[in-house]
Amino acid sequence: MEDLLIDIKKDLREHPVVISLSGYLDSSNYYKIVEAMDDLLNGGYFYLIYSMKDLEYLSSAGISVIIETLDKLKAKGGDLKLTEVSPRVHKVIELCG
């Protein structure tokens, strides 16, 4: 499988952090998102935006890590938004309900 690239742009804690994902998000690399999200949560960032326009593939492991991230953020009073979801990835998300 291809690799996952993560680009994190953060400003002030009051502003959402934009995380651009590109490549493939699957069981071989989902830990990269877990580590990045844990660092952001520990730094007090609770509002995140995943920009997914360059994400080519999303597996069930990727969906699980997105749900896990949302649960962690909600527990801290935060939120997660998905933007620019590619048609291919959007179809996977729709199939999962």
Report on the structure:
This protein has a four-stranded mixed β-sheet. The chain is 40% helix and 33% strand. The mean pLDDT is 90. α1 (30-42) runs parallel beside α2 (60-75). β2, α1 and β3 (47-58) form a beta-alpha-beta unit. It contains three helices and four strands; from the N terminus they run ββαβαβα. The protein has helices at residues 30-42, 60-75, 87-96, and strands spanning 4-9, 17-25, 47-58, 79-83.
Strand-helix topology:
Blueprint: E1 4-9, E2 17-25, H1 30-42, E3 47-58, H2 60-75, E4 79-83, H3 87-96
Parallel strand pairs: 2-3, 3-4
Antiparallel strand pairs: 1-2
Helix pairs in contact: 1-2
Please name the defining characteristics of this protein:
single chain; 97 residues; alpha/beta; four-stranded mixed β-sheet; globular
SS strand fraction = 25-35%
Secondary-structure element string: EEHEHEH
Count of separate DSSP helical elements: 3
Instruction: Tell me the span between the first and last alpha carbons.
Output: 25 Å
Q: How many strand units? A: 4
